[in-house]
Amino acid sequence: MRLSGFVDDEARERFFSLYDQAMAAWPRHTRHEVATSFGPTAVHRAHGGTGPPLVLLHGGNATSASWAPIMPMLTAYGTVLAVDTLGDAGASVQKRPVTDARERAQWLDEVLAELDCDRAHLIGLSYGGWMALNQAVHRPRRVASVTALEPARALVPVRAAFVLRALVVLLTGSRAAAGRYLAWCRAGRVPPPPMRDLLVSALLDHRQRAVTAPQALTDDQLRAITVPTLVVLGGRSPVHDVRRAAERARRLLPGHRTEIVPDAGHGLPADAPEAVGRLIRSFLAELSPAADRHGTPPPPR
User: Fold this and answer.
1) AB hydrolase-1 domain: which residues (predicted)?
2) What tens digit of pLDDT does each residue of 201-256 get?
3) b/e map 251-280, b = 16+ CB within 10 Å
């Protein structure tokens, strides 16, 4: 079975040149690799407080660089660990198929174990938002909380237009079409270079194979999530029915928080970094108020 990878060496070189440029927008950080049974996984670490780390799970084709706009707010709270999703464009290298939701949760659990994360706050966008919720369903032991930003397919189906526009980009290989697709997803907002060019490269220079797509979560699965959960949706997201997604989250995740950022599209951290950052910080402060006042969690009792 063919696994995910870059289309050729030239595509790989183009992608990583842009990736390194885009990651320069991050605060000071290190990148290292952890072993999993599915393949080596790259993790970017930016140091912060001493409490449970914030583990970032990017959206499909978005790469860890996409978190740059809200990194200052996150590192002020604690140590940030951004994972390059195995099977997606990035520095992780797939060695084995990820066939279903349980195997995706197993991979992430192995990553957290290798990082010595006994408890972690998961923050995910789109596919990463689904992964965070999926982890709370299948492997919740290491999960301290979940923040799901525009979680793909977890709450409601994606619109047919989303799938069709993505197919046009992949079938034509057009960088112009890729740019239009990104602008459509993000309510007309596309980040400047090099991030824009990196997103296009991730779409066209890399192929996902033998990787599970995000799956709809059943009513029972959502009701079974017991860790504190924040769902944030973009009010102008064209990817899914935002109203229905919010209604389902509020109905099946009672006691958790569901918020809509009115003017944002699907790319929440880039579309509305200040609003999204404030929501995440206030959510984490509810779990540990002293951590938000001082930038580090309170000492253990």
Assistant:
1) 54-276
2) 999 999 999 999 999 999 999 999 999 999 999 999 999 999 999 999 999 998 89
3) ebbeebbbbbbeebbbbbbbbbbebbbebb
